[in-house]
Specification:
By secondary structure, the chain is an all-alpha fold. It contains 9 helices and no strands. It is globular and about 40 Å long.
């Protein structure tokens, strides 16, 4: 199975500490992908349009969710733009997120929002549904869902 959410070296240097992946492991993974001529996940799924569609499916669910919708602004335009840019970057696409917003610092950016287990579960359920609708190969889907599960858990900042 190809590596899917392989953080590019520039991302590791740029402060992807939230992901807790050792730089040497990332470098080795990237080098091994280059050796076999593997494409980036970004290229494999068809580029930015795939990520935009994923984010649209996700936020369509969030907007209707009584647990999550109060955490988001009425106008989701900026949230969609930020999430799309972040996902494009971790998929080894253009680094627009880092160039416009700096290091992700996900816990810091989400600290103002009360995120407990209920919010984590709702967020992951909606993202999981959006991913499953994308029709990825089973291995890629599993890797992406595992990443989102870890990320959602990492953002919990309160009990309950």
């Amino acid at each position: 199975m190809r590596a899917m959410i392989a953080l590019p070296r520039r991302a590791v240097r740029g402060g992807f500490g939230d992901v807790r992946i050792r730089r040497r492991a990332v470098d080795a993974m990237i080098d091994s992908m280059a050796e076999v001529g593997a494409e980036t996940f970004y290229a494999q799924v068809g580029g930015k349009a795939w990520f935009e569609a994923l984010v649209e499916r996700f936020y369509a669910r969030v907007a209707k969710d009584s647990v999550l919708s109060p955490l988001y602004p009425q106008d989701l335009t900026e949230a969609k733009r930020h999430l799309t840019a972040f996902l494009v970057q971790i998929g080894e696409g253009p680094s627009e997120y880092a160039e416009t917003r700096g290091a992700p610092r996900l816990r810091v950016r989400h600290a103002p929002f009360a995120i407990g287990l209920a919010e984590r579960e709702a967020w992951f359920a909606h993202m999981s549904a959006a991913v499953k609708e994308a029709g990825l190969p089973a291995g890629d889907e599993a890797q992406l869902l595992a990443y989102f599960a870890r990320m959602a858990t990492h953002l919990i900042n309160r009990a309950g």
